[in-house]
Amino acid sequence: MQLRYQFRLYPTRGQQQALARTFGCVRVVWNGALQVRREAHAAGMPFPKTGDLAKRLITEAKRTPERAWLSDAPVGVMQQALRDLDTAYRNFFDSLSGKRKGPKIGAPRFRSRKDSRQTARYTKSDRWAITPAGKLRLPKVGELPVHWSRDLPSDPSSVTVIKDAAGRYFASFVVQTDPHEVLPEADGELGIDLGLTHFAVLSDGRKISSPKFFRRAERKLRKAQQALNRKAKGSSNRRKAVVRVARLHARVADARRDHHHKLSTTLIRENQTVYVEDLSVKGLARTRLAKSVHDAGWAQFVSMLEYKAARYGRTFHRVDRWLPSSQTCHVCFVIDGPKPLDIRTWACGACQTIHDRDVNAARIILAAGRADKENACGGTVRPAA
């Protein structure tokens, strides 16, 4: 399977200017190709092919005085921008036709130099390399220092240089990992109930407290945003204030991502099978709990569990979101009816067992996940209705 490994870059002032020129050339070629295709669509003509666009927007444009500065960027990076535009259109049309699963995606849009994220992708044709000294050599940029936090499992096929809103630079490598990289088999099965009071409650009774990274940084963010609103538009102080706000948001996002990675890796290593409720995060984000739902980052955590289970030979399963996990007794499986959120413990009316609401929900998720598993004959354990 393919994975992305991201590392921090520390370019010098001159290298930052060279990367800015590369970002600008990629952006101009993307916008030019998008404009040509929109005009062709408005005129009822077929879309121009990528080869014709490359010849028109790169090869011929570099010979004109107005676009001679396109020579400041590698040709392969600009050609990759055209291929990325092809992929964006293909995904858009597949989403319209229903061929692409998941939520609908919009049509490709124009890029701006004021966008919070600038990228440029280098492929093997650009002859980039990792030097023996551990630096990333990019054509027309030079050797960039890299903070290697871990080793790459294989030779990367491409690298994307990213500049985020906080002014940080990253190198994102695409690598092929070993599909047979499995962990030693474990005996445990785990049901996970995600929540807001506790981030995760496990079927074995453990409760993972919610870090609430955004809530803890909310006061600093509010003061930084107020200072930004007081700055005059277009001023140098406003640009500095924008970066200050972006850095605070980046710190929150990094802390949340680090917490999710560590917790998901621990749960995957300890258990052979993991069951999670299929929550509707988009629906919950429209309620009055929207800020807390976004702060928890359930979707990111569940996606980490899913791909790590596939990578290490574990089993991951989503349980139906309509399962009455908070209403069903995990001892006698009698549905006891809905309960307000302020009731955290309740007694089953049939067997009189006293339940912790969240722990009971995690155990019901575990039981439902086991019932949905396939047996030796290929059928499900749960009997037919």
Detailed description of the structure:
The protein is elongated. It has a 5-stranded antiparallel beta sheet with strand order 2-7-8-1-6. Strand 4 (136-138) and strand 5 (142-144) form a beta hairpin. The protein has helices at residues 13-42, 50-59, 75-97, 213-229, 236-270, 281-284, 290-296, 298-311, 357-371; strands at 2-9, 118-123, 129-130, 136-138, 142-144, 146-147, 158-163, 169-176, 188-194, 198-202, 207-209, 271-277, 315-319, 345-347, 354-356. Helix 2 packs antiparallel against helix 3. 22% of the residues are buried. The two termini are 38 Å apart. With 385 residues, it is α+β, with helices and mostly antiparallel strands. The protein is built from 9 helices and 15 strands.
Spatial strand order of the main sheet? 2-7-8-1-6
Could you say which overall geometry the principal axes of the C-alpha atoms support? elongated
Distance from first to last alpha carbon: 38 Å
Q: Which residue ranges are poorly predicted, with pLDDT under 50 across at least 5 consecutive positions?
A: none
Largest sheet: 5 strands, antiparallel
Number of helices: 9
- The total count of strands amounts to 15
Structural class: alpha+beta
Strand content: 15-25%
Rg (C-alpha, Å) = 26 Å
Helix content: 40-55%
